[in-house]
Amino acid sequence: MDSRPFSVYVREDGVYLEVKPDVEVGKIEIIGYLKRQGIDVEEGLVEELIDQRRGEIVKVSDQVPPSAKEAIIEVEISEDGLTASIHIIPPLDERNWPSPQDLEAELKKRGVVFGIKEDVLERICSEKLGHQWIVVAEGIKPVNGEDAVIALKVDVERLKPKIEDPNVARVDLRELGAVINVLKGQALAEKTPPKEGRDGINVFGKPIKAKQARDKSLPKGSNTEISEDGLKLIATIDGNLVLKDGKLHVMPVYEVDGDVDYGVGNINFIGSVVIKGSIRDGFSVVAGSDIQVGGVVEAATLRAGGKVMIRGGIRGMGKASIEAESDIMALFIDQAYVKSNGNVIVERSIMHSTVMATEKITVMGGRKGIIVGGSSSAGFEISCVTLGNEIGTRTEIQVGVVPSLQQELKSILEKLEDFREKLNSIENNLNYIRKLEAQGKIDQPKKALMLQLSKMKLQLQYNLEFYEAQRQKLEQEVAKINEACRVKVKGVCYPGVIINMRGVIYMVKEKMEYVTFYYDKGEIKFSPYF
């Protein structure tokens, strides 16, 4: 709304001026304004209007400039066509302000037909808002679609070498993280569906095309499946995650074409591991199932949830450690620690090593089939072609010992002892409370305690019966093993060999051939090989 302290009127015969009463105004302000509009006035007349004739409408000029009769309406449209703005140069005579219809007509001349803000046009006219750009029409912005996103749900950062000390950036090249273990049912990747775009419309009423979203497929490879909702990729087996040709595959076997060395790093895999080369000094291979090695195992560590097969043998240098929940098979074993929860089967030789098997140790494949040096122990039987050597190297042999059974039996005996001690303590407390009861001196808390102790007694008695039965069962199993244990030598057994059966020790003092050692009635006896 115009707030000037004077008004200007344009008529056919000239320009008229009215100075509003009771407002502060100077002649310089009025004369300057009129001159900017192209109107020259007498200074004295303006002074007279200010001083003596306020409120009167007085003609001040016979000249009427063309620009003073009508407002100038300018329209500007943004480059993207989403907004239109109006700028008004007001008319000299306020009565000649354009109407909202005039403004809308000017917009339509420029092709603006959509998103016109009628309320804004009304305000511009009612408040006479001139000399400023005002947005009077707005289109609708397009909303671009969002592409589908595939997110891997496995930690691929583990494939990078690990830095042990960030201060020196020293990388443990053995820990290259070459294996990514995944479990059956594990989510490998997750898809966020695409979000469709929405077209817009500009102030000309024309559509603005939105960018359309692109869908993406989950990287389904072998041994994977897509969930029913189509949003997850799931492993169908336990295995090693492999990214190949843009697809995620779960492989049940982890294969190494060459050696396990600094180029491969340590391996820890949930399934089976096949190594076509050798396992070099200082490296480790841990497998949830079997391990197969085509070459030699040096001073390395192997742990298998299944069996271990080493075609090239073990050259341990006193540092190798091989353990398996099933059989261990090797061409030879030299200066190594080997433990099997099944059998140890060797073709050529066991030399200066510690070898343990829950069932049997067999070295019968080679011409000599020798066990010499170190210690070998098995639950049932040890058989070989040659035991010891001509120079009398100390070679310890033990049979009839199953470490797992012994450990279990030891644990049960400890539990039985603990239960008996607790039962004895409860019996003493119960006897004391019963004496108080007989004397009529028992109160309610002690009655509650007696009931609680009686329940504990029954539970301990049950535990004693259960574990006593377990003890007898284990002792029977150990006795059967002791009865069946044998040491069989198909060729020569040399002095220096020490045989231990059920705690009874037999030291071989002279060369023996084609012999079988066995336990009988508290002593170790021998007979021809069978």
UniProtKB/TrEMBL annotation:
UniProt keyword annotations, A-Z: Coiled coil, Hydrolase
Coiled-coil stretches: 402-484
InterPro entries found in the cross-reference section: FapA, FapA_b_solenoid, FapA_N
Superkingdom, taxonomy of origin: Bacteria
Pfam families, sorted: FapA, FapA_N
Keyword Repressor: no
A GO molecular-function annotation: hydrolase activity
Protein name: Putative polymerase with PALM domain, HD hydrolase domain and Zn ribbon
